[in-house]
Design goal:
Blueprint (H helix, E strand, L loop, with lengths): L1 H22 L11 E2 L2 E2 L8 E3 L1 H13 L3 H11 L17 E2 H4 L4 H9 L7 H23 L3 E3 L9 E4 L2 E4 L2 E6 L2 E13 L1 H10 L5 H17 L2 H9 L13 E8 L5 E7 L2 H8 L1 H7 L14 H4 L4 H5 L14 E4 L2 E4 L27
Parallel strand pairs: 4-7, 9-10
Antiparallel strand pairs: 1-2, 3-11, 5-8, 6-7, 8-9, 10-11, 12-13
Length: about 375
């Protein structure tokens, strides 16, 4: 195609495909690995995110300025405040369907995760998940030592979050006036990644990780609707709220740390309410559906299935646990769960377990 063809591939085609992501009503098409004009196209994130270059630069300069002295002081402060890192797992089923779940690529996993707990994780996985919680404190310390105002709760121990019936979510924190979003309060989202995922994130942005991107959009959207952001902002920065560009959350600072070498990379994610609304439309479907959805693959060897806490359910003999959410009598109306029998607590005497058969013809994922 020559030089003009290269320009078309690098500029025009990505733009058109990015537009396709916005207007598509098929959420599985969003962030998908698209094939157009006979060529494979990278997953796109350019319409929703851009590299947080100024913020990343400020973080590094802050550490280099005093050889990490202030960073370590901030770490000491934040480690005690990340309760998820040290509080015990209750062992109970979550009392809500969360934003971190609803955007999952495998609807069967979302459906099962609402109704039963995953299989017992290995000791390595428990340590790995705890590492993710501990990293929240380190990233908050990195931002604070750079001179950025950050908060992970309302100042009284209550985590920032929202609730709308059975659906609820919480966020990692808020930050004020970061260099890439001046005069704004942005939402914070932190992740840890291995080498491969981190390299893909650096090269392609958050669009490479659809579930993470959807989580950001859902949380921003719901914080603006179900949490009083103006009241929260005022409690954090008092009269400086009058200088804010918006009284709503418009952007997320999404930061990821490479677990192998401690590299850090971040992007600014611009809120997209369309994606959020598409995800929220899943809530009544997941709650009311008495038919087991198809899984992402029918191969136990598929990499996502191998890492899934429900693989013993899909490919083994595990059965659903008995509770209200696995009972045929459970309904979800206007975001609230109710019992068609009028019950207010679980009882084996009236339990009618969901009767299903494993779908034989599931779509194969390459």
């Amino acid at each position: 195609m020559g030089e003009k063809g290269n320009v078309y591939r690098e500029v025009t085609l990505p733009f058109l495909l990015g537009f396709y992501r916005v207007v598509s009503s098929d959420i599985n098409g969003i962030n998908g690995s698209l094939t157009r004009c006979g060529m494979k196209v990278k997953k796109l994130g350019s319409l929703f995110d851009h590299v947080a270059e100024k913020t990343l630069d400020l973080i590094d300069k802050g550490i280099e300025k005093d050889n990490g002295k202030k960073f370590k002081e901030c770490e000491k402060k934040w480690f005690g405040q990340i309760s998820d890192a040290w509080k015990a797992d209750s062992g109970e089923l979550r009392d809500h369907l969360g934003a971190s779940q609803i955007g999952g690529d495998c609807l069967r996993k979302v459906w099962l995760g609402f109704r039963t707990r995953e299989s017992q994780p290995s000791a390595r996985l428990i340590r790995l998940w705890n590492r993710g919680h501990l990293e929240e404190a380190r990233i908050l310390a990195l931002l604070e030592q750079a001179g950025i105002e950050v908060w992970n709760d309302r100042g009284d121990g209550r985590q920032f979050g929202y609730k709308n019936g059975i659906f609820a979510g919480s966020i990692d924190g808020l930050a004020y006036n970061i260099p890439d979003c001046e005069n704004e309060i942005v939402m914070l989202e932190f992740k840890t990644m291995n080498d491969k995922n981190f390299d893909n994130f650096v090269a392609r942005g958050i669009g490479e990780f659809p579930q993470y991107e959807r989580q950001c959009h859902v949380n921003m959207h719901c914080m603006n609707i179900y949490a009083d952001t103006h009241e929260i902002f005022t409690s954090l920065i008092q009269d400086k709220t009058k200088d804010l560009k918006s009284q709503r959350i418009e952007h997320t600072l999404f930061l990821a740390v490479n677990k192998n070498n401690d590299d850090i990379h971040g992007v600014i994610v611009k809120r997209n309410d369309l994606i959020a609304e598409q995800m929220l439309a899943r809530v009544p479907e997941i709650c009311n559906n008495k038919i087991l959805p198809d899984g992402i693959s029918d191969r136990e060897s598929y990499y996502i299935c191998k890492m899934c806490g429900f693989s013993d359910f899909c490919y083994g003999n595990r059965e659903l646990s008995h509770n209200c959410r696995t009972c045929m009598m459970q309904n979800c109306e206007n975001g609230e769960l109710s019992c068609a029998m009028g019950g207010d607590k679980f009882s084996e005497d009236c339990y009618m377990g969901i009767d299903f058969k494993m779908t034989e013809n599931k779509e194969e994922t390459a």
